[in-house]
């Protein structure tokens, strides 16, 4: 266990302990009709979309970027698929169209960032603003409900465990394998740590940046499908609302610096779990769920301050750089 | 003679592990221009920063007008009348000229900034230094040279007794320098003490009344310009007496160069280096000699495509090469190790292994990773061959010492088997042992047929490892020396030469 | 165009462009729809967007230093909530107003100190501030709280008659006063000029001996104060306090500032530009509602396209200089 994951792990354990203390049956799991049920399973299922987007966001942040448009992209994916199904289309072709559109939006963001050279935060603000409008354009402002068992599987289906979490974990494992088995992870970190040295070493940073923006858009698309499938409806206004903030938060809590460079997928997983567990905890201890935001704020501030260079200098002036 | 306005007595400044200044004395008289000279790392900027309160000396004292001072920062030094103009203009380009001159001390009326009074005061200050610029114009609309002069106007605005000019001319052309000097003379005649730092000898001889030379954090001496010739000045800066060091070992196999590998024809970039011709042959080490700021790095960057040339072309194997960027150069077999190891070389947060294979990996693209086994073999081989310590592939590159970082960078390029290796200051700031290893390695690589462009501030080193030495001065190629009996003295004379009396000689 | 660029420095170009866009959109409306080009339609632009104008003013300060404040929408909501709850608890209006303004400023101060002292990115700190403020709303009450205080109601319903039979509300006056004060501070005080200097080059500003730390914290205090003021105006507009008020309004404010010609990297921009930005956004909304068949979501798409246009315009200006 690396040192920088220590705080997130402690935070998660503490949250779980609070839950066990309040509800002793918190950790219990039971099988029913071949499905696994329990509070832990709920946490995983509800956290699946955030985890998936945070996964893509980790890579974007590792290149010194950020993507604010993920929530809007998720809403568009749900809108496209549900409209397609509602018009009598096949759910699979609907999802394929949706994801292709998401990839296109990722290309657009990547174009603005790597070719035009716009700061990532502004470049993706464009799609964040316009994206929900586009989603509403697709649904014509309605909440489109669909009744399609196949489509429902993605967000609400079970294969012992919820399918949504299986998808997210598969994506996590996939990304871990791809970035570590190929050289993608190395090149992403290299671009994030020192763009100029990477350029002089011949790294194609433009391609790398483009790749991560397309990837995060695809992740958002799938997450959007989960969200809309879970409720069998597309709500252009509220689907994936604030999920970009949760995703960024998960990444930051997981120890990946917004300044780019070394990233930790395990950290992101922990971060996403912490956020979801926090939501559940607030619910179980009987505070109105909306107040979760206050706790989130406290957690973010605490984690950021603990990671802040100024504070760590003050606390431990001569600490050596920690080897991972 | 009058009393010195600045009198620095025996100050020492230390950084962790480095004695940047040791018992340095320095005097600055009102109404004179005093040049501070020295090569990179000599301690010039440390001395300026000790004067302006950025660094705190561990010993010694700074007297300003006879009184002992210890500033907490540039702001306090400014209030005491010490104004600094930096190489990178420290102004805000988004504001107007008038604001940049008076920011922080704007004339006010009833608490509000009085725009009219401010413009009038700025115009007055600009007139005083004879600069015709509209005070209402945005600074960004003016070229760097004008901005530099506006920075001087700002310095004048605080009624500076001491004006520090830290390499103000490095990006100016001849006319702009003349304008700057005219203004400096105006101020000098008004009694301002000017501390002038520049790498251009011609300029120093033109403007300075007195000079102090630093080397390795110590004062070599203080002279008036009239009593110290160019040759003696360069010797003082480089720290050698002529004729003493000629018994250096030379490479035994010098001059066995093969076919031309790279030919540059009238390659140049405005403000960086004047158009030059250069041929590099296989198996040949070409040295670049010149003082800091003479255009050595700029030349190397053009050959690698790190900066784009405005004029001329590059031929590799007789074929024109379109240098769109580093990747084009790498594909043509050119490798470049930057002088700025931290900023442009290493990826500090990545491991030794990752840094070592980075260039190779970048050339292969992300989808074809260097197989782990091959990477491990390469890492093991080069860690051993170059004696990189700690020999731990997982150590973070940023934690290595300077010499080991340099060797790691070299290794990064060697694994790509380049045909031309451009080394910019590969031995700067590293210990003697590592230096010798790198020099030996360069000789071996050349013997194996690789072409090397070797840049170093240390002339002995350049002369020792090179088959040919290209001499640069004031951003142009002034001569090319070759031959077995090539000596350091020849190079020093060329570097110190007065323009006009150009000895375009080629020793052979 | 060349004559224009020759006379107006490039720093005015984006603001001029904003006004051109405003006049153009308004012109399209007045040509196509009867009753569009009336004084009252213009007045309504101000009435319906008074809070957004104040918000954009505060955001302009932050963006001029190169920072960003994501918390403003939530602070608006928190301000409506505090106002409504305090009034319900029987506080007099003259006490509620300063209390709300102080709370907003204190939140801004807190964020500014964390950003400056601990060097945490403004994005993350103000994101936390956004969560905190939004969450605190629900700590006070999960339900919407209506405002019945007579002073507030009188202020909200009272109108001022201008020549030509155009009526405006008191909120418009407050918003315009805020704009005037902000313009004064930015252009005629040392604090304001230092805001520009920090945005232009923080290291240069420090080397010039300016008090950059005070400014970097100060702009967040100003933004917090403006958010609280905007919250008060919003509570007059809605006559209620609710935790779901002003969701996403920070994006509108940022969009208004960017469309108003400010550079998000700092140092370039004008308060007047931001006001014009708000008016452009408001006009688009009015146009779409006049059109009738076009749906409201077109507003977002058009704003997105405008954002893009201005970002690209600014890239071109930056590249050229």
Automatic annotation (TrEMBL), chain A:
GO cellular component, one term: plasma membrane
Keyword terms of this UniProt record: Cell membrane, Membrane, Transmembrane, Transmembrane helix
InterPro entries: ABC_transp_permease (IPR001851)
PANTHER family: ABC TRANSPORTER PERMEASE PROTEIN YPHD-RELATED-RELATED, GALACTOFURANOSE TRANSPORTER PERMEASE PROTEIN YTFT
Entry's Gene Ontology molecular function annotations: transmembrane transporter activity
Membrane topology: Multi-pass membrane protein
Leader sequence residues: none
Protein known as: Sugar ABC transporter permease
Ranges that cross the membrane: 44-61, 68-86, 92-113, 120-138, 158-178, 208-227, 239-260, 267-287, 293-311
Keyword Transport: no
Source superkingdom: Bacteria
Pfam families, A to Z: BPD_transp_2
Species per Swiss-Prot/TrEMBL record: Saccharothrix coeruleofusca
Location of this chain's protein in the cell: Cell membrane
Coiled coil: none
TrEMBL record, chain B:
Domain ABC transporter: 6-241, 256-499
Membrane disposition: Peripheral membrane protein
SUPFAM superfamilies xrefs: P-loop containing nucleoside triphosphate hydrolases
Location in the cell: Cell membrane
InterPro entries listed in its UniProt record: AAA+_ATPase, ABC_carbohydrate_import_ATPase, ABC_transporter-like_ATP-bd, ABC_transporter-like_CS, P-loop_NTPase
Keyword vocabulary terms for this entry: ATP-binding, Cell membrane, Membrane, Nucleotide-binding, Repeat, Translocase, Transport
Gene Ontology molecular-function annotations: ATP binding; ATP hydrolysis activity
CDD domains, sorted: ABC_Carb_Monos_I (cd03216), ABC_Carb_Monos_II (cd03215)
One annotated Gene Ontology cellular component of this protein: plasma membrane
Protein name per the record: Sugar ABC transporter ATP-binding protein
TrEMBL record, chain C:
GO annotations of cellular component type: plasma membrane
Keyword Ribonucleoprotein: no
Cellular localization per UniProt: Cell membrane
UniProt keyword list: Cell membrane, Membrane, Transmembrane, Transmembrane helix
Pfam families to which the protein is assigned, alphabetical: BPD_transp_2
Segments traversing the membrane: 12-33, 45-63, 70-87, 93-115, 122-142, 162-186, 217-238, 297-318
Membrane topology: Multi-pass membrane protein
CDD domains: TM_PBP1_transp_AraH_like
GO terms for MF: transmembrane transporter activity
NCBIfam families per record: PRK11618.1
Classification via PANTHER family: ABC TRANSPORTER PERMEASE PROTEIN YPHD-RELATED-RELATED, INNER MEMBRANE ABC TRANSPORTER PERMEASE PROTEIN YJFF
Name of the protein described by the UniProt record: ABC transporter permease
Provenance organism: Saccharothrix coeruleofusca
């Amino acid at each position: 266990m690396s040192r920088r994951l220590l705080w997130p792990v402690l935070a998660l354990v503490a949250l779980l302990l609070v839950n066990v203390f309040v509800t002793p049956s918190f950790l219990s799991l039971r099988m029913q009709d071949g499905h696994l049920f329990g509070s832990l399973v709920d946490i995983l299922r509800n956290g699946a979309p955030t985890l998936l987007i945070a996964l893509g966001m980790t890579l974007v942040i590792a290149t010194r970027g950020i993507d604010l448009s993920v929530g809007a992209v998720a809403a568009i994916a749900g809108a496209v698929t549900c409209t397609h199904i509602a018009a009598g289309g096949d759910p699979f072709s609907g999802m394929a169209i949706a994801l292709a559109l998401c990839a296109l939006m990722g290309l657009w963001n990547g174009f603005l960032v790597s070719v035009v050279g716009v700061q990532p935060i502004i470049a993706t603000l464009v799609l964040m603003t316009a994206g929900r409008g586009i989603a509403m354009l697709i649904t014509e402002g309605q909440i489109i409900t669909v009744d399609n068992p196949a489509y429902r599987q993605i967000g609400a289906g079970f294969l012992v465990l919820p399918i949504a979490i299986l998808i997210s974990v598969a994506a996590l494992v996939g990304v871990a394998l791809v970035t570590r088995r190929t050289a993608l992870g190395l090149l992403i970190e290299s671009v994030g740590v020192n763009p100029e040295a990477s350029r002089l070493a011949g790294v194609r940073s433009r391609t790398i940046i483009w790749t991560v923006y397309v990837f995060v858009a695809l992740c958002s698309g799938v997450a959007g499908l989960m969200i809309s499938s879970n409720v069998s409806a597309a709500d252009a206004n509220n689907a994936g609302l604030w999920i970009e903030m949760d995703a960024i938060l998960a990444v930051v809590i997981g120890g990946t610096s917004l300044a780019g460079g070394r990233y930790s997928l395990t950290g992101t997983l922990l971060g996403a779990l912490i956020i979801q567990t926090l939501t559940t905890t607030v619910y179980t201890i009987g505070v109105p769920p909306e107040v979760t935001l206050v706790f989130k704020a406290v957690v973010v501030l605490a984690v950021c301050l603990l990671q802040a260079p100024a504070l760590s200098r003050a606390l431990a002036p001569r600490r050596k750089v920690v080897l991972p | 003679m009058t009393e010195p306005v600045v009198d620095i007595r025996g100050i020492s400044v230390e950084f962790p592990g480095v004695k940047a200044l040791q018992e340095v004395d320095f005097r600055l008289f009102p109404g004179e221009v005093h040049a501070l000279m020295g090569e990179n790392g000599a301690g010039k900027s440390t001395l300026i920063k000790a004067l302006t309160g950025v660094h705190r000396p561990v010993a010694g004292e700074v007297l300003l007008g006879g009184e002992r001072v210890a500033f907490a920062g540039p702001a306090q030094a400014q209030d005491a009348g010490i104004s600094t103009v930096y190489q990178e203009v420290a102004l805000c380009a988004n504001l107007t000229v008038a604001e940049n001159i008076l920011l922080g001390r704007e004339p006010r009326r009833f608490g509000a900034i009085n725009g009219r009074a401010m413009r009038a005061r700025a115009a007055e200050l600009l007139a005083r230094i004879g600069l015709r610029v509209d005070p209402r114009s945005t600074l960004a609309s003016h070229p760097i040279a004008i901005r530099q002069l506006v920075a001087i106007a700002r310095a004048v605005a605080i009624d500076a007794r001491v004006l520090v000019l830290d390499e103000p001319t490095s990006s100016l052309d001849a006319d702009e320098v003349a304008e700057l000097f005219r203004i400096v003379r105006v101020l000098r005649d008004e009694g301002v003490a000017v501390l002038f730092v520049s790498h251009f000898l011609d300029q120093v001889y033109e403007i300075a009344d007195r000079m102090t030379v630093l080397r390795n954090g110590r004062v070599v001496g203080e002279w008036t310009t009239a009593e110290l010739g160019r040759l003696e000045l360069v010797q003082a800066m480089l720290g050698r007496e002529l004729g003493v060091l000629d018994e250096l070992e030379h490479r035994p196999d010098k001059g066995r160069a093969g076919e031309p590998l790279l030919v540059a024809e009238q390659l140049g970039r405005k403000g960086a280096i004047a158009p030059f011709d250069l041929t590099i042959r296989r198996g040949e080490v070409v040295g670049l000699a010149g003082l800091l700021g003479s255009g050595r790095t700029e030349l190397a960057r053009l050959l690698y495509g790190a900066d784009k040339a405005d004029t001329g072309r590059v031929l590799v194997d007789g074929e024109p090469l379109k240098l769109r960027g580093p990747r084009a150069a790498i594909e043509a077999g050119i490798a470049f190790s930057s002088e700025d190891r931290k900023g442009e070389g290493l990826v500090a947060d990545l491991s030794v292994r990752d840094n070592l294979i980075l260039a190779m990996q970048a050339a292969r693209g992300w989808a074809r990773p260097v197989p782990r086994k091959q990477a491990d073999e390469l890492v093991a081989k080069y860690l051993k061959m170059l004696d990189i310590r700690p020999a731990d592939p997982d150590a973070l590159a940023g934690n290595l010492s300077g010499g080991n970082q340099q060797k790691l960078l070299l290794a990064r390029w060697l694994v790509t088997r380049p045909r031309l290796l451009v080394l910019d200051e590969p031995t700067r700031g590293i210990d003697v042992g590592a230096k010798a290893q790198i020099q030996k390695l360069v000789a071996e690589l050349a013997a194996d047929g690789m072409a090397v462009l070797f840049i170093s501030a240390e002339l002995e080193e350049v002369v020792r490892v090179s088959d040919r030495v290209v001499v640069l001065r004031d951003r142009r190629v002034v001569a090319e020396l070759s031959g077995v009996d090539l000596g350091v003295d020849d190079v020093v004379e060329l570097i110190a030469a007065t323009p006009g009396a150009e000895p375009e000689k080629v020793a052979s | 165009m060349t004559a224009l660029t020759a006379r107006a420095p490039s720093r005015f170009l984006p603001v001029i462009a904003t006004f051109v866009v405003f006049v153009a959109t308004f012109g399209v409306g007045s040509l196509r729809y009867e009753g569009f080009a009336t004084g009252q339609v213009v007045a309504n632009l101000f009435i319906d967007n008074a809070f957004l104008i104040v918000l954009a003013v505060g955001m302009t300060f932050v963006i001029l230093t190169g920072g960003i404040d994501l918390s403003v929408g939530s602070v608006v909501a928190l301000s409506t909530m505090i106002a409504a709850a305090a009034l319900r608890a029987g506080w007099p209006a003259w006490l509620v107003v300063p209390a709300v303004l102080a709370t907003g400023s204190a939140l801004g101060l807190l964020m500014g100190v964390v950003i400056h002292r601990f060097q945490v990115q403004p994005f993350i700190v103000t994101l936390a501030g956004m969560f905190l403020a939004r969450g605190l709303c629900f700590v006070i009450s999960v339900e919407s709280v209506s405002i019945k205080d007579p002073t507030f109601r009188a202020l909200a319903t009272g109108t001022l008659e201008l020549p030509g039979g155009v009526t405006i509300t008191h909120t418009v006056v407050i918003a315009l006063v805020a704009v005037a004060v902000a313009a004064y501070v930015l252009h005629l005080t040392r604090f304001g000029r230092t805001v520009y200097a920090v945005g232009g080059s923080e290291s240069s500003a420090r080397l010039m001996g300016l008090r950059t730390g005070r400014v970097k914290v100060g702009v967040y205090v100003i933004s917090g104060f403006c958010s609280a003021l905007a919250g008060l105006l919003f509570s007059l507009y809605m006559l209620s306090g609710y935790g779901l008020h002003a969701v996403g309004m920070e994006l509108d404010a940022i969009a208004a500032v960017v469309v108003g010609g400010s550079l998000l990297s700092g140092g370039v921009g004008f308060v007047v530009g931001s006001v014009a930005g708000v008016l452009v956004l408001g006009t688009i909304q009015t146009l779409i509602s006049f059109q009738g068949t076009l749906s409201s979501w077109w507003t977002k798409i058009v704003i997105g396209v405008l954002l893009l246009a201005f970002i690209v315009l600014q890239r071109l200006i930056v590249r050229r200089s």
